[in-house]
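Technical note accompanying the year-one report. For the benefit of new consortium partners, we illustrate the data format agreed upon in the data management plan: each record pairs a sequence with a structure-token string. No post-processing was applied to the example shown here.
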Amino acid sequence: MNESDCSPIQSYEPVFLRLFRIYRQAGYDIRINLNPAFFAGWGDSLFCMLYKDGKPLSTGGGGISLSELNFFESLRSALPLSSIFVIGNSGGWSTLALALLWPEARVAAIDCGLMEKPNPLFEVFDFDRHQGGMPSDFGIVLTNDLARAHHLDVQVVQGMSPQDLPHVIPSACPAPPQLVFIDGGHSNEQVIKDFDGLQRLVDPNCIFIFHDVVNWHMEKGFLHCCEVVGRKGHILWRTSSGMAILLPDTASVAVREVVDAFSESEQKLREFKRRAPRRRMVSIIEKLPENSILGKLKTAIKWINAHLPRLHRH
């Protein structure tokens, strides 16, 4: 093939790199997508946490993981949007990600702000985290400032869901939202309240995406939302938090293909859950250092397993 036969490759910068640069230029470091297996099974190491001066900031919650960014990035090419709404902004990572992916859309968000009293569990078990001295609207102001600096059409409003939705959405959204990302209070009861409060305020063909459904055991609340509108929902098992999505009947084939790619069949899930404990044990044993006592035992077991059929024959 001649060099002249090669068509020029159009440059595309993944949304993660763009987000990372936005926060780094503003003086923040990012922790995201660290393998939980390397950190005592700490599942939250997958999600975005902002750091300032070497310490994590408590902004009311984390941000979506790389696999979840990948899901939204995959959805972007299949789904043109002009109006997006987010419940639960935290430090703005997810909100700004949606704005970067859909630059032609207005992204509006509502957030209750930081708690007046920090979570006592953080004080006991996570003493390096910044808790005091931050204004309640820290994440809201940060997100709006970053959006303005990078010419993103974003507006984050301080308020409570669902009670403030009837005046926030009409004032912040130029049109009824076509996609809503629900990442506020993490309980079945709150998910249902958020969903019910949105029903008369969104586009009839709105897509609802719920964060942390499996992670925070909110399947019951999600199934209730599906029953309210008489549609089948989908758990996105290939996302870190076990997000869920509720599609309208009018969803395109392209959108459904993306959802299918991030889902998994019930049969395969049952089989994987059945085998997972044994596979985990095998993985732990396999990675033992050869010069340790257990490592030597592993080597002996492998030798016996390899030679046992031969010994039986003799």
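Partners are asked to follow this layout when depositing records. DSSP finds eleven helices and ten strands in the chain.
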